[in-house]
Amino acid sequence: MAAKLTYCFKTDNATNGLPKLMELQRMAKLTLAFTIEPSDQIAVQEQPLVLDCQVEGIQPISITWRKNGMLVAEGMDPMTLANGSLYFSHFQKQKEDGTSDEGEYGCVARNHFGLLVSRKARIQAASKWSFLPNPRDISMAMILSHPGQDMVVPKVFFHEATELSCFLF
Questions:
Q1: Strand-by-strand arrangement of the 154-160 sheet
Q2: Using one digit for the tens of pLDDT, what is the confidence trace for 70-128?
Q3: Contact 90, 106 (CB under 8 A)
Q4: What is the dihedral of CA 156, 161, 163, 165, to 10 degrees?
Q5: CA 52 to CA 80: how far, in whole Å?
Q6: What is the rounded distance in angstroms from the CA atom of residue 136 to the CA atom of residue 117?
Q7: What is the pLDDT of residues 42-60, one digit of tens each?
Q8: Distance separating alpha carbons of residues 146 and 138, to the nearest angstrom
Q9: Pairing relation of β-strands 86-88 and 62-67?
Q10: 122, 138 in Cβ contact below 8 A?
Q11: Spatial distance between the Cα atoms of 158 and 164, rounded to a whole number of angstroms
């Protein structure tokens, strides 16, 4: 939603003041305002990603993007869509040239009357947990003892990745 501006002024003649009021109202409509700003996201490797940025104001409005403070080069990936959003067809944490799509992004909107910078959005790659496909056989023993009770010694054996065996001795 665009910011609303209020102007107060005193004139000697209401007729002379009307053109000034109309000019101030026209100038207030020239301001740029974000209707949608980019937000932090967790991205999945090789999946599409969209950073939203939409602005209202007097046309023509141009939108550019910055990553870590540097201008994002216009190209195929990422590319700025007609609505101002930044589109990644295949998000990459690590590219062949050593760069990454991860970082802080912001959009910059500009028209003939000014410039507006969005808040920064942090993009991070999702992480995977590493699991051993076939863990080695292990044995584990734990002794539980309470006063006046017999000692209980459970033993746990891991034989396969999907099998868990527990025995009480």
A1: 138-141, 154-160, 163-168
A2: 999 887 789 999 999 999 999 999 988 889 999 999 999 999 989 999 999 999 999 87
A3: no
A4: -10
A5: 10
A6: 55
A7: 999 999 999 999 999 999 9
A8: 27
A9: unpaired
A10: no
A11: 5
Closest CA to 57 of 118, 5, 117, 109: 109
Peptide bond into 154 cis (omega under 30): no
The token pair at 36 is 């949608």
What single-letter amino acid sits at 59?
A: Q
Distance CA 97, CA 168 (A): 56
Rg of the chain (C-alpha set): 30
Distances (CA, A) of 13 to 9, 10, 22, 26, 153: 12, 9, 15, 21, 98
Q: Looking at the predicted structure, is the pLDDT value of residue 1 above 50?
A: no
Q: Is the pLDDT of residue 162 over 70?
A: no
CA distance 54 to 59: 13
- Residue 129 token pair: 């947990």
122 neighbors 40 (Cβ within 8 angstroms): yes
pLDDT exceeds cutoff 80 at 167: no
Q: Is the pLDDT of residue 35 over 70?
A: yes
Q: Check residue 5 and give its pLDDT.
A: 40
Strands 41-43 and 121-125: parallel
